Amino acid sequence: MKKQVSLSLFFCFLSLFLMSDSAFAADLQKQLTGESAIEQIVKRGNIRVGLDVFVPWAMKDKTGKLIGFEVDVATKLANDMGIQLELVPTEWSGIIPALLAGKFDVIIGGMTVTAERNMKINFSNPYYFTGQGLLINKNLAGNLSLADFNSPNVTLAARMGSTSAVVAKKQFPKAVIRLFDTEPAAVQEVRNGRVHAMVSGQPLPVQQAAMAPDTLIAYPDLLMEEPIAIGLRKGDVDTLNFLNNWITVNQHNGWIKERYHYWFETTEWQSLVQ
């Protein structure tokens, strides 16, 4: 009798194991054969790209059209895929939640790779590297050393939710940090002398200082260097593979380097926005 009960229990547990194993295999098969974002994009005929407006990554020209380095990257990606591009301007502080909510397909907006962000979304391989700089009000803080900015008597600006905000708090923990939704708003505060300086990704500090040399100066050295990559939702190996290969091709053929040079190392584009 005990042997019969034991055998019954054994076969019962075996059946449950096989059922759960089959369910797991079915779920795995569904994930492997499910339609990737890249397939959905091609079927839909357009790619929706999330980005925020900040110079020279993305900004409006005199006609109100979005232009900039990241706009060029998104446009080239769409063209190479043979589909239309839909740009979705989104405030930086909410851009990752918007991606996760399906408001757009990818983020192409000068987003630096960080561990915190990577816990929420996946990143492609970096397609270029940037660094954090310091834009300084010449009259308020032109004579300060870098160490002098780490003081409770100094107020620094940065864009909310950005790597710049993290760097500002980490490198200048004693300073007062004011956060802004957009970089132009933060730049204006530096210009007006309401803050001593602004932490921002290059080339903004250098370019803004060149545009207003009587008021602004850029600290000559980078505070840190960072990789920039395309952000996408987790669990999509096909889309990640496609983006990585697209980046590799356009790095090796020189296209990304040429566009980077135009937007970050020249001022030729400034006549389009002034």
Number of strands: 13
- Mean pLDDT over the full residue set: 88
| Secondary-structure element string | HHEEEHEHEHEEHEHEHEHEEEHH
Domain tally: 2
Enumerate the spans where pLDDT stays under 50 for 5 or more consecutive residues.
Answer: 16-33
Distance between the termini: 92 Å
Largest sheet: 6 strands, mixed
Overall helicity: 40-55%
Any idea what the shape is? globular
Q: Which fold name is given in CATH as the topology of the largest domain?
A: D-Maltodextrin-Binding Protein, domain 2
> Counting H and I runs of at least 4 residues, what is the number of helices?
11
Strand content: 15-25%
Question: How are the secondary structure elements laid out?
Answer:
Elements: H1 2-33, H2 37-44, E1 46-51, E2 59-60, E3 66-67, H3 69-81, E4 84-89, H4 95-100, E5 106-107, H5 115-118, E6 122-123, E7 128-137, H6 138-141, E8 155-159, H7 163-171, E9 176-180, H8 183-191, E10 197-201, H9 204-211, E11 216-218, E12 224-228, E13 231-232, H10 237-252, H11 255-265
Parallel strand pairs: 1-4, 1-5, 8-9, 8-10
Antiparallel strand pairs: 2-3, 5-13, 6-13, 7-10, 7-11, 7-12
Structure description:
By secondary structure, this protein is α/β, with parallel strands linked by helices. It folds into 2 domains: 37-127 and 229-272, D-Maltodextrin-Binding Protein, domain 2 (3-Layer(aba) Sandwich), CATH 3.40.190.10; 131-225, Periplasmic binding protein-like II (D-Maltodextrin-Binding Protein, domain 2, 3-Layer(aba) Sandwich). The protein has 11 helices and 13 strands. The strands form 3 sheets. Strands 7, 8, 9, 10, 11 and 12 form a 6-stranded mixed β-sheet that branches. Strand 8, helix 7 (163-171) and strand 9 (176-180) form a beta-alpha-beta unit. The longest helix has 32 residues, at 2-33. The radius of gyration is 24 Å and the shape is globular. 33% of the residues are buried. Mean pLDDT is 88; it is low at 16-33.
